Amino acid sequence: MVPLLLALLVMRASAADDGPVAFFNNYNVKLDLDAETPGPQYPVPPVVIEKPKIFIGTSAYRDMACPGTLFDAFNKAEHPERLYMGVIDQAAYGDEDCVVGYCRLWHEKLNDTRVCPYFQHIKLTRLPSFDAKGPTKARHFQGDLIDGQDFCMQVDSHTMFTENWDTKFLDMWYSVKNEYAVLTTYLPGAENYGIENFAGRNEVPHICNLMWAGGDILRNSIAAACSNLPRPKLTTIWAAGLSFSKCHGEIAVPYDPFLPQVFDGEEISKAARMWTRGYDFYTPHRNYIWHIYKRMRRGEWYADGSKSGEQRTYEKEDPEAMSGQERQAKEKATSTKRLQTLFRIKGGSGEDLGMYNLGTVRSYHQWLEFVGVNYTTHTIDTQTRCGNLVWVPNDPPSQDPPSPSEDSRGAEAEIQRLKAELSLATARISQLSLLRLSQRGHTPRTRTRGGAVDDAVDGDDAGVHVDDPTEGADPGGYDLERVVQKMALEGVDTLAEDEQASSSRQPRHHKWWQRIHGDEEASEHDGALHDRIVFMENVGALVAVVVVGAIFVCVRMYKGHNNSAKNRRLAAKQTGKV
User: Fold this and answer.
1) Could you report the per-residue pLDDT of 534-554, keeping only the tens digit for each?
2) Spatial separation of the C-alpha atoms in residues 219 and 268, rounded to whole Å
3) Do 237 and 37 contact (CB within 8 A), yes or no?
4) pTM of the entire structure?
């Protein structure tokens, strides 16, 4: 896929016109952006927000570039005080925590003496990498970290930003004059970082075509390109690597969490659900962020997941457990059927997908025509979808953002099950892995509510997605920020060090209990187990004493009986009665 994405920035020698032009399939098309909304209906004008807050959501899988993405976003923003990050960090033992690395970079790159700037603007959910099932599930939980911000951006965890990118994106979004606009595209590669005016004509990547994948599922094709755009251009499809819109779009159309092992189909399924709910996609007319296409991950979710299976049954071996590859194949088949149901094609189950179904603001047939897909003839229009388009009215237009369907047809119960699974999986949730520092002599003071992780945050005090060890602590207690600073300045990799240290002093059961329930509960479990062991040892000793005593008494009684019998025989012999 990387060569396809890099090809979008090839210079077009045939483009001699200074006006806006689209390049695709060796065609050049002059663009008329004013003709894309001919009326009589027009998009709902945007509601202007003074000093808007921006939420950036990103999901990382063992990604060494994740800390740099957070650092670049805050460091390059014109108003970092209005920026908030939500991170799903899927990591393994020994991996550096994404936020720990972020704090470290402030010192290494800028020699910044502040205590991890904007740390309280980051919410982190840490999940074990062995439980990863692809992008859809992680990004669904990523949406749960939105907390009242105005604009929402989704990027990959290996992204680079230009100076003042936040203000530039806001200006770009408002220039579309559409409350339901979504800026989206495949990003240019990091090797072109900083080149906003590429090729001297502001050339930008433009996603507009589809291709067939397995099971008649659609996926995005190679990006085309546009040049000299005066403002963002209307397009047909959506990309997960960049999505910028009002947050009501993410709330109204959350990721479908019931699509494990899905890569092909992730983007087109959400695009169809968003478009039929009235949202419109636009290609950004300038390059303000870039994508690191060189792999910097320590593994791949589909490869690492295939190695799990029986190992996921912690308490005992399960001979009937599926192997990791068998589980992946079964989950992917189920997801493919769900996508076929969404797109109403052969192979689907026909079930009602509830809140994860298509919307009703625009129809399914309008969507097929807009993207140029014909399932009957199994064809895709690749000639006209990249050029001039006509905006389809979201009839009737409404000033109120669409909301999720109240009739979820049982999906809510399954969502609660997934959230419970998330709560269990947050064995590795950490506030910069601070709870692990208790093994080094620190004494964190934690608060819990019924044993659940408290994810409530208030306004600008939003912090990491975990209970705050500092709340209610006395002045001599646990100083979160000082520990963070110490970790950042010393470059401490707490996970690797704790793993090595724990291997020499923790009981064998501790590792899997810790992986399921977390450090603090694992420590409590160790204490309870220790008490039980001591009790059993005492009981065992008592039983042993009783048994030995009983044996001693029986032996004495047996010997006494034998002596009595011997004496009687001797007496009888002496009297001649034997």
Assistant:
1) 677 777 778 888 888 888 888
2) 6
3) no
4) 0.69
